[in-house]
Amino acid sequence: MDNTEQVEELTTLIGDLVRIETENPPGNEKACTEYIANWFEERGIEADVIDEPYPDRPQVGVKVGSGGPTLVLNGHIDVVPAGDRDQWTHDPYAGDDLDGRLYGRGSVDMKTGVAIGMLTVAHLADDIKSGELPGSLVFHAAIGEETAEPGTKTLLESGYDGDYGVVLEPTRLHTATSEKGLAWYEIVVTGDPSHASRPDQGTNAIQFAKPLLDALDEYDTDVRERSDSLVGQAYSTVTMFEAGTKENVVPEEAKITIDRRFLPDESIQQIDSEIDALVGNVEDEHGISISWNRTRTYESAAIAEDSVLADVFQKHSARVADVSPEPWGVSASTDVRNFINDADIEAITWGPGDLAQAHTYDEHVELSSAADGLTALLGATEEILSRNHVSE
Prior knowledge:
Radius of gyration: 23 Å
Structural class: alpha+beta
């Protein structure tokens, strides 16, 4: 296959995947799962449909070869909702291809990554099966990444694992050996309701929330002093405030949500303790009743900057697209944590496209970047599978 045919094949596949709406919530991945499984079967590659962790939201696991080393190519097929369609110049599920860009929800995050993973398996399958290319290749089409559900974790536990992993998120082909963690906390301040004509009869939860908001602001200031050479600063950002039921009712509850971005050397247990201490201090100082709950967690993760896997992908990215081989980390959170923390697999986050496009109106991917990604992934995969040992 020449380069033109390869680009056409890639563009068609990305467009097909984008045109299958897989919004999460609610979790509409099933039609895409079926498409991917059929796509592999049409090419003589066995694709397993996995009904865990949720029977109504199946995933795809593919394995080609039986020897080692084994490389796992991971992509999630769920996308965030498109939001207000009037804000889109291009239909979010039309997969418009215009002036070298393909538009649509999920085009960057991360159906382009899924597409280059699928094509890499398809292009190398015969050589792996014949033994011409040693090693094995595994592919994931995972559900639920956007809402921290255990899609990738379940696939790894089901045997679709290996010696190395690549989470094909958009990094502009930079090789991320570390990533920030993410935790969302919901903090509730409790008061007593009353009619607004008798405000002193109740206790206004909004007023009670003021000292908590001040304490959270101070906490963010302190947290921002923490930094990592690859992923940058830590943050603690108030992102939601909800209170009140009616215009003439003193609110009995105020709910505050914070988004806590944390570094590889911070543990979730440490952060829980910090939130608990902050809440306790405000309660004691102001006589307020406050409760808190961590509602979502993406653990931070990191591997050695000079790992074998990182070195190979840095080299091929530099060769194909002149990408700097310098150590790098990603500030977003990805399923790479499931590889490193849960399965003890050396893994990176790497892929074509710009993360700045993720979750935006008129999300799009530069098709030249997608093509570079496929070329680099094919080369890096062949090199990894040809290695005669696995790093300790």
